[in-house]
Structure formats: structure tokens, C-alpha cells
Design a protein that fits this description.
With 351 residues, the protein is an alpha/beta fold. It has two domains: 184 residues, Isopropylmalate Dehydrogenase (3-Layer(aba) Sandwich), CATH 3.40.718.10; 141 residues, Isopropylmalate Dehydrogenase (3-Layer(aba) Sandwich), CATH 3.40.718. Helix content is 40%, strand content 20%. The protein has a ten-stranded mixed β-sheet, with helices on both faces. The protein has a two-stranded antiparallel sheet with strand order 6-7. Strand 11 and strand 12 form a beta hairpin. The mean pLDDT is 95. The structure holds nicotinamide-adenine-dinucleotide (NAD).
Length: 351
């Protein structure tokens, strides 16, 4: 197993170190190669995605990533900003399918800002298309019009084949779950998503056991808060998925709990927490490493087809939570507040 480890910026190195600790405790035959990305890449090689980092990621079977970004890079030209490194590596590795499970651990029901009865038992899989949509569409940019006024442009664009392949991923996952797919779009206003809906309906015919429903994104944002347990698999485009999966993270107590997998057509994947680099809490050893540790479990499951060790990690996380260990973001009275590295130790001990 060749794994490229890209810690990135902010809390990235702290949380990735915990996931590496957990992986190493499994004593698997793994080769872990570290490389910089994001702001760290810019500092090391003048590029948020240095050529050597990209080459390493391409050669590896899987990539374990922390997070990128820091406010200190906000004044750099857009192409040099940390987030561009992330968008580029997703595109270069053709990681078009982003899986974000939103699962509520019973112990954390009171950490959610929603009532426990609304969120307990929650288990949603958000499937987000990751390499198309308004984040990549051309033309884009800020220009100055003839009258001297500035204008910003981005382009929402999806080809039929891009929609089809993410639809297949969503339906295949639903087949292994509760066989329900809710496709989220804005087909009443945006032609791009009108096509999205048509293609979803076409692909659904190949999965007669799966129930397909459609929801406008504004309603989906509301339903996720009102009655989140109505969802099994939710499939949507890049920008809607970005926003809805962050919203879903709060159902689970904290964004620090939410792992993600981004896969290509051959199950090569990049695994990272759904949150960002949290510069506000970096270098204090207080971040929650569980999303990154759970991302490592997804790596074992999806890229290496190692269900048993993936289950072991997930059960160890459950056990550490049941034992009362909590980082600051999920802390509630009566629990044991621990630092980032101590949470990593607790998971290793539970293993
Ligand atoms: P963020 O996700 O970094 O932080 C949002 C809030 O959640 C902050 O209060 C932070 O302290 C908290 N938080 C995040 N992860 C946490 C964890 N593991 N444990 C405890 N608390 C946690 O989003 P932001 O503040 O909007 O962005 C900060 C930087 O991260 C920006 O530069 C942004 O571009 C970047 N970013 C990167 C990614 C990524 O690498 N995938 C995703 C989103 C944002």
C-alpha cells in the first residue's frame, strides 16, 4: 500500500499525525511518503501543488490529506493560493466522486445544535460531484467593463457523461444501503441542473430497486435541518454539495467528525476531513482529529477493500467516544476533555 501523506496547512499536520499514528498501529504493509501541499507547497516550492507532490500522489495508491489554507495567503494571486492546489490535485487525479458520510454517533447526540430526537440514528451519505460545475467552468474571472465597472463571471457547466458517472456511483452506494437516492438540483431555474435531473432519471432505470426522488437545493437545505433522517443517499453537484455537506456536518455535532473520500473511476482515492485548515485553532493541539482518522478508515475500505481494518478503526473511534474522550469542539459536561494528540492516543489504545 503506497500512501502519499499531504498534511497541508493550519491544523493539517496535527490531525494527519493522529491518523498516521492509528494506521501505523494496525501494522499493515504500508509505505507512507510525506509531501507539502497548499500554503506549505507554496512555501517549499513556490506552488500550492508542487510538481513533486503531484508526481508522488499520482504514483501512490491513495492520498491522505489534512487541509489547506491560511488567511496569510489571501493576497496572493489566485493561482498561487492554497485552495487552488486542492482543486488542481482533485482534477489531476480525476477524483470526480466525493463521498461524505454524515453519521451521528449516539454519544454525540447532545453535541449537535439540533434536538437529539431530530438527529439520533442519522446516517446519510452525501455524494458530491467534485471536478465539474461552477468551480471549474469557463469562462471565469473578474474584468472591467467599458463603463469602468467591474464584473465577476463564473460558469456553471456539466456534461452528460459527468452527470452519468456520478449518478452510477450514487445508485451503486444506495444499493448497499437503504436503496433511496435523493438528487438535489435547481432545475426550476438553472438549465445545467435541468440536464442533471434528466440524466438522473435515465440512470435510475438501470437500478429499478432504488427509489429516486428530486429536491430543489433550497428545500434540501431546509429539509436537512427539519427532518434529516428522511435521507439515505443524497447526490448533487459540486457547489450545492459543498454547502449541503457542511450543513450536514453540524447534524453530527461538529465538522471535526466528518470524513470524506474522493474517488476516481478505479477506486484510487484521496481521503481528507470535510473541514478546512482551521487557522484559528492551529498549533494548539486542540483540533478534533476524528474526521481525519475516519478518513483513513474510508481509505482502507474504498481503495484497499480492507473492510475489516476499516471497521476496526471505526469501532475504536466509537469506543474512545463511549469512554468519554472529547476534543473541545464536541465537549459536553461530564466528559473528559482531551487534546488532539490525546484523542489519537485514545483511538490507538481502543484499537
Ligand atoms: P474551517 O473548516 O477551517 O473552519 C470552520 C470552523 O470550524 C472554525 O471555527 C474551526 O476552528 C472549526 N474547525 C474546523 N475543523 C475543526 C476540527 N478538526 N476540530 C475542531 N474545530 C474545527 O473553515 P474556514 O474557517 O472557513 O476556512 C479556513 C481555511 O481553510 C481557509 O483558508 C479555507 O480556504 C480553507 N478550507 C480548506 C478546505 C480543505 O482543505 N478541504 C476546506 C474548507 C476550507
Amino acid at each position: 500500500m503506497r500512501i502519499a501523506v499531504l498534511p497541508g496547512d493550519g491544523i493539517g499536520p496535527e490531525i494527519v499525525a493522529q491518523a498516521v499514528k492509528v494506521l501505523e498501529a494496525l501494522n499493515l504493509n504500508m509505505q507512507l511518503d510525506h509531501a507539502p501541499i497548499g500554503g506549505a507547497g507554496y512555501e517549499a516550492a513556490g506552488d500550492p501543488l508542487p510538481a513533486e507532490t503531484l508526481a508522488l500522489a499520482k504514483q501512490a495508491d491513495a492520498v491522505l490529506l489534512g487541509a489547506v489554507g491560511d488567511w496569510k495567503y489571501d493576497s496572493l494571486p489566485r493561482d498561487m493560493r492554497p485552495e487552488r492546489g486542492l482543486l488542481r490535485i482533485r482534477k489531476e487525479l480525476n477524483l470526480f466522486a466525493n463521498l461524505r458520510p454524515a453519521l451521528l454517533y449516539p454519544e454525540l447526540a447532545s453535541a449537535s445544535t439540533l434536538k437529539p430526537e431530530v438527529v439520533s440514528g442519522l446516517d446519510i451519505m452525501i455524494v458530491r460531484e467534485l471536478t465539474g460545475d461552477i468551480y471549474f467552468g469557463q469562462p471565469r474571472g473578474i474584468s472591467t467593463l467599458a463603463n469602468g465597472e467591474r464584473e465577476g463571471i463564473n460558469t456553471m457547466r456539466y456534461s452528460e457523461s459527468e452527470i452519468r458517472r456520478i449518478a452510477h456511483i450514487a445508485f451503486s452506494i444506495a444499493m448497499k444501503r437503504n436503496k433511496k437516492v435523493c438528487s438535489v438540483d435547481k432545475a426550476n431555474v438553472l438549465e445545467t441542473t435541468e440536464l442533471w435531473r434528466q440524466v438522473m432519471i435515465e440512470v435510475a432505470k438501470e437500478y429499478p430497486q432504488v427509489e429516486l426522488s428530486h429536491m430543489y437545493v433550497d428545500n434540501a437545505a431546509m429539509q436537512l435541518i427539519r427532518q434529516p433522517k428522511q435521507f439515505d443517499v443524497m447526490v448533487t453537484g459540486n457547489i450545492f454539495g459543498d454547502i449541503l455537506s457542511d450543513e450536514a456536518s453540524m447534524l453530527t455535532g461538529s465538522i471535526g467528525m466528518l470524513p470524506s473520500a474522493s474517488l476516481d473511476a478505479n477506486n484510487k482515492g484521496m481521503y481528507e476531513p470535510s473541514h478546512g485548515s482551521a487557522p484559528d485553532i492551529a498549533n494548539q493541539d486542540i483540533a478534533n482529529p476524528l474526521a481525519t482518522i475516519l478518513s483513513a478508515a474510508m481509505m482502507l475500505r474504498y481503495t484497499f477493500a480492507d473492510e475489516s481494518n476499516a471497521d476496526r478503526i471505526e469501532n475504536a473511534v466509537k469506543k474512545a467516544l463511549a469512554q468519554g474522550y472529547r476534543t473541545a469542539d464536541i465537549f459536553t459536561d461530564g466528559c473528559r476533555k482531551v487534546k488532539c494528540s490525546e484523542m489519537g492516543d485514545a483511538v490507538v489504545a481502543a484499537l
